[in-house]
Write the structure tokens for this entry.
Amino acid sequence: MAGVDDYIGKTVAQKYRVEQMIGEGGMGKVYKATQLMLDKPVVLKVLRQALLSDERTVARFQREAKAASRLNHPNSISILDYGQGEDGALYIAMEYVAGKDLHHILSREWPLPEARVARIVGQVLSALSDAHGAGVIHRDLKPENIMVEQRRGEPDFVKVLDFGIAKIMDTPAGDEGPALTRAGFVCGTPEYMSPEQARGAALDHRSDLYAVGVILYQLVSGLLPFDSDSAVGFATKHLTEQPPLPSRRRPDAKISPAMERLVMKALSKNPADRPQTAEQFRAELQAIDKERRAQVGTRRGNAASNGVLAPMPRRMTPLDQQETRIGDRLNEAANPGWTDQTQQTTLNTTPGGSTSPDGPVPRPSVGLEPATSPERTRPGLDATQRYDSAPFKAPSTLPFKIATVVLVVVALAIAGLFIYGQVKGPQVPDGPRPPQTPMPLNPADLTRLYEKDIPKEQRDAVLASKLASAGDEAWHRGAAELAIAKYKEAFARDPLPETALKLGELYFQREETGEARSWFDRHRKDAPNSHANAYIEQVMPAK
């Protein structure tokens, strides 16, 4: 075919109407097409006509169809058909996946939560487990060959693609046609090659697990384990160098120690030191995610138990208890030596006022002067023994009677006020009041929001986090308008740089370059060292 336009609008093999080109590679082009019989979208991979005379390329193309047709797993791409068009070009028809490849997600959405990383990679490993069980080694795993689709109820649903250089391990000798790789020949993508693949040695399924380790390293850190400007440089480093810990290369990334250990284990030079099967790898990944979720639950529980709890509502004090306490305070004022400890001692030893485990201490009479008053004790006797003989008559009790009358009047007044308050309205309990409904935002509050500085006293990080999560969910569903609205509300409540970045990306996808640039500029202003700056410069070069 001379160009893209030669196929768009054409019908291939009287079955598939080509709608648009969605990709291009060295072997051919990839189109979105419609299967006419079922009116169903499919993907057509068409081999370039110029390569039809190359036996090795044709065999490789046929190998992809044969390898993928062996697989019957939800996370592996399904091959629907293989054949030759009217013009002699070979094609493979496969299911259409309405999603983004993992490379796109890494470029646009990193950092990814560890739970999301585990969900995506777990499905890749599940697909590999099925492929390895069918005797198929992928040999070219990379983010571009992993599609991620947002389905209802199934976020981040994965499909593993492109078995173009897959090795079928149990094919009888001589049944494959010409050898696809010569001895010592290296195939695959250098950034993701296992050491044994880089040296051209014999491969088994553990080579794919090394590639998963590279992808996992990239997902948690945003970086490849090695940097180089050439394919030979990458291959050499995979063969000879130990990759640095992802947490050292990206200290700002949130990488759990268990996840980092698993990544480094998968990147072992010796295949025997890696996880030995895809299922084992997946089980270890799931164990890490389960432990993480348990720790999150524990932290939440501790936060609930160790946090500052609201005090219990103050219980109403009966009138007689109010009266007693006021009387005690009056006695304290009249006798400075009358302390809580003295009072407890007196009540514990005075006949008729003793305490015991069997019952409460009867309340002393209002205004009762303490038995330790020096005028009321006989020298040489116990302080609680009162004088009853004539030579030691107690002084006049008139002042105490007056005080008692005053006390009763005051207590009755307080009781009256209390009862009046109860009748007029309920008593407001002590403790923090329930949270108030946040003030609604006016449309003007969201206009040119990227220029505004939100005062700290007006910020609400908790509400902003909930709004941002709602925006994420809307974005994953493809509801861009709703996602923008939620992100703007979140930014108005708490102006975080990552929210500005998401708004810039959404406006960029909608081709509203003015708004996109303004939000990207706000992100760079608030996070001058952001990892996204290189991407922003790429899509929004300086004017």
Remarks:
- Residues 150 and 156 are 5 Å apart (CA to CA).
- Residues 1-96 form a domain with the Phosphorylase Kinase; domain 1 fold (CATH 3.30.200.20).
